[in-house]
Write a structure and sequence with these properties.
α11 links the parallel β15 and β16. The radius of gyration is 19 Å and the shape is globular. With about 325 residues, the chain is of the alpha/beta class. It has 11 helices and 16 strands. It has 2 domains: about 150 residues, Quinone Oxidoreductase, Chain A, domain 1 (Alpha-Beta Complex); about 150 residues, 3-Layer(aba) Sandwich (Rossmann fold), CATH 3.40.50.720. Strands 3, 5, 6, 7, 8, 15 and 16 form a 7-stranded mixed sheet that branches. Strands 11-10-9-12-13-14 form a 6-stranded parallel sheet, with helices on both faces. It has a 3-stranded antiparallel sheet with strand order 2-1-4, with no helix packed on it. The protein is about 30% helix and about 25% strand. GO terms for molecular function: oxidoreductase activity; zinc ion binding. Keywords: Oxidoreductase. This is NADPH:quinone reductase-like Zn-dependent oxidoreductase. It comes from Ancylobacter aquaticus.
Length: about 325
């Protein structure tokens, strides 16, 4: 089968279009013919080698964390899917590789595709949808009437988180550039901070939750926005000891994670706040709940561009500019 292959870690490196063996299908696996694959900054970071110490990958490997397609066949113990089903997923760590014609996905990671979305739209959802769900529902426990600041509201994660936060009846503030103010307002943002002309930490106060996806400077400034008891959740790091334990990292790496996050954890604790790093996990059950919200019209996909499969390297280069509004997707079929 055709696939885009990462032969070596390299900053802004080029993936090679080549042939790989057909995926092996275990008893709990579902073989999926991929129609479209979403791209994420995580793909770029893995390509660049940023996650070498903490993720179980060794080149050559196939990148890609989002898929939408059709079930080809199922393993002996699979009961929830049959050949021909339209599905979508974010495969679990260690088994990614959606920039290929087919992939074997564990049944527990898979969900039926929302009926009201195209394959391309569905492929834009899993990673950002699960990130939003696990940040707002699992980690923050966001409730009606609470206030949340979402950084980078016009990006792939931000556009989804804004909509989910509004569905949960929270008051939403977000940061974005001048060109994207109307986009985030239309998604439901109550307060919009144009970072080109305003400093969010001088405008906002008394927030319950901040979701950070930007740099360390933004992370530290976000502490001043939160009220006592507030939660600072970061999907861009630094990783913390809880993450290291969940990943089963060795003692040395656990100590490194502790050191990397020591400064922000100490500052947060000193202000009566909680800091945590979120690295989303695959979960077909949560994805099914997201499907229900999409089919009910509570959340809609926000897509920037769809590239042909052959232009995957160009799509990644475009994603790397940081200027996309919503998700970037490649179409295989």
């Amino acid at each position: 089968m055709r696939a885009f292959i990462l032969d070596t870690y390299q900053k802004s490196g080029i993936l090679r279009l080549g042939n790989r063996p057909e995926p092996a299908v275990g008893d709990e696996d579902v073989l999926v013919e991929i129609h479209a694959a979403g791209l994420n900054p995580l793909d770029s970071k893995i390509r660049d080698g940023a996650f070498k110490p903490i993720l179980p990958y060794r080149p050559p490997l196939i990148l890609g964390h989002d898929l939408a397609g059709w079930v080809v066949r199922v393993g002996a113990n699979v009961r929830r899917f049959t050949a021909g089903d339209e599905v979508y997923a974010r495969p679990r760590d260690g088994r990614v590789g959606t920039l290929a014609e087919r992939i074997a996905v564990h049944e527990d990671d898979l969900a039926l595709k929302p009926r009201n979305l195209t394959m391309e739209e569905a492929a834009s959802i899993p990673l950002v949808g699960l990130t939003a769900w696990q940040a707002l529902v699992d980690r923050a426990g966001l409730r009606k009437g609470q206030k949340i600041l979402i950084h980078a509201g016009s990006g792939g994660v931000g556009t989804f988180v804004i909509q989910l936060a509004k569905h949960l009846d929270a008051t939403v503030a977000t940061t974005t550039s001048t060109a994207n103010v109307d986009l985030v307002r239309n998604l439901g943002a109550d307060v919009v901070i144009d970072y080109k002309t305003q400093d969010f930490d001088k405008v906002l106060t008394g927030y319950d939750v901040v979701l950070n996806s930007l740099d360390g400077d933004t992370l530290h400034k976000s502490l001043s926005v939160l009220k006592p008891g507030g939660k600072l959740i970061s999907i861009s790091g630094p990783p913390d000891p809880d993450f290291a334990r969940q990943q089963g990292l060795n003692w040395g790496l656990r100590q490194l994670m502790r050191l990397l996050s020591f400064g922000i954890r100490r500052k947060a604790k000193g202000r009566g706040l909680a800091y945590s790093f979120l690295f989303m996990r695959a979960d077909g059950g949560q994805l099914s709940q997201i499907t229900a919200l999409i089919e009910a019209g509570a959340i809609r996909p926000i897509m920037d561009r769809v590239f042909p499969f052959e232009a995957t390297n160009e799509a990644l280069a475009y994603l790397d500019t940081g200027r996309s509004k919503g998700k970037v997707v490649v179409r295989l079929k």
